Each structure stands twice: as structure tokens, then as C-alpha cells.
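Re-run with default settings, no changes from the original entry. Doing this only to confirm the output is reproducible before filing.
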Amino acid sequence: MNAEKLIYSGNVLTRLCGVEYPVFLAGMAAISGPQLVAAVANAGGMGIVGGLRLPPRALRHWIQETRRLTRQPFGVNLVPKFGGPDVFEAQFRVVLEEKPRMLSLFYAEQYAADMIPRAKEAGLIVMVQVGTAQLAKEAFSHGADIVVAQGSEGGGHLNPGTIGLMSLLPAILDIAQDRPVLAAGGITNRHDVAAAMALGAAGVLVGTAFVASEESNAHPLYKQKIVDATVDDTEYRTGYSFGWPYGTPHRVIPNHDQWNLLRHIGGGARAIDKPKMARKLSLYAGQGAGKIHSVVPAAERMAELVRGLPVSSGAAAAGSAGSARSLQSDQPRIAQRAVGPNAHA
């Protein structure tokens, strides 16, 4: 990744968060553990711990373990609607005490007015993931520093709304003015990153591609299911998903075994789960799964994503000018391919 370090000079998002690259790991419950978070952070991105359903003591342990594995900034994702108000308040206090660089929130509308000011007072950057322009407006009004525009192409749980990223991102950018907006939904490679940045995103949030990384807590069968999937193989659902209220929107690779009742339930199989669970569930994944062809280290995935970032003119140092010119000349073609009429970001 030496060439990219020389040619990408950063933007408002990297300066705000203290990371090298505006590539963020999605905070996926049970999947984004300390090893994956640290691997992304050590590669220059923003790793985010998946705090959903973690008891407060376990959440504290994961934060402290991540700190042992990296000295780089990282965040924690919380979903306030789970566990009841007392459990969530206990989780939130752990985050305020441990002070990671960022608090990431999902499905937090009814708590945002209280939580965001408290988190910012504690010195945390606050990021809110949304699926509609109205929710983005509300998040900014409560003081969010960053909003994630999550398109319906994304895997796992989705905010209410079925807006694709290509339409949602420009609408939220209009609301954001000069505040940073991340693009999420189906982003797996350099071309997707180039498309999102060309539309005006300050960076990207990536989930499915990091599920299929060596450091993720996903079951090996889950990772292989993503690798084997094509772009046609995901399904948007509003039925059952593991541990969530019926009707919560989510995207999965469906299980078509008609004799298996668990195929009706969406979930994310962990490495500690029995193999039959990974075989029977419909597994969370975004539409970008068809572009993921192998399980690789998170640093290698980061290197691929970083190749889609805009080239900063004049940033190449002596000794790497040739590489910089090559990347710079490739960038318009990358962006043109990525945002063409047949692109699937």
C-alpha cells in the first residue's frame, strides 16, 4: 500500500477521525470483533466494533482487547433498541468511559437527541447510519458529525426505506452541506469506491467484503457462501431475522432448501456456531457479494478499496512518481466505468 500512502492526502473525514483512508468497517454484531477491527485500523481505515447484544462487561473487554491490538483510532457501533433501556444505558456508559474515537449509531432515532450530545461532551465523534433523507436531516439536527447513507443494496439489516445508494447519497449530500457523508451498500472493490467518491461521498462504509476476510468472526461456511454468490443471489426481505422484530428490513443470500424452516430466518453465522446453523440460515450479505471471489486478509481488502480513492495531484514523492502518474491516469477510466449506466455500486 506504499503507493497509495504517497498519493492520497486525505480529506475532511480522515482529518476528523485521525485515519489515513476514509474506508470504514461496518460495525457488524458478533462479526466485527477485536481482530478484524484492529486489522482494518492497522491498515489505515476506521475499524468499528460491533456492539449489538454484547453485555456491558463483554463490550468493555472487546474495546480493551482492540486497544491491545492497535494504537490506531477505532469506533464502537451500538443499536439502542435492543436489550431494553437499562442494558443499553449500561453499554453506552462503557463507551463513554472507554472513549474510543467514534460512536456509531444504528436504529437510534428515539435516543439520538439525548445520546449524541452526551457522546460529544465525552469527546467522541458521532456517526449515524440512515436510509432516508429525512433521517439524515434529523441526525444532523441532533449534532451528528457524520452520516452514513445506507443504500438498499447493503447486506444485513437496513434502515426503513428502499432507496438505492445512487439516489440516496446525492439527496443526503444536499442536506449535509459541508458535513461528511459516507456511502454504504454494495461496496466491495476499488470501482465501487471510485463511484461513491465521484458522487461526492467523503468515504465508504463496507460490511460484506470484510465478512469474507480472514480476521472476521464469521463462520467459514458463511464466508464461502459469500464467495460463491453471484450478483443475482441476494434477496431483500421484511420478514424474520435472528433476534430482530418481525418486519425489520434486511438483505440475505437466501437458503432454498424447502425442507429447512430456518431458511425463512436471516442471520449471520459466527465461527463458534455449529456448521448446521451456517448451512440452514439465510445469511446476511449485500448485492456486492457477486464481486467477492476469495477470503483474504483484511489488509488486502483494504488495499483493494483504497485503490479507488481519488488521486491528489502533486502528492507523489520522489521515487514513486511513476506509480502515481499511472494511478492518476487510470482514475478517470475507473470513475467512468464505475458510474456508467450499467454500474452496480
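Residues 321-338 form the longest helix (18 residues). Residues 57 and 298 are 27 Å apart (CA to CA).
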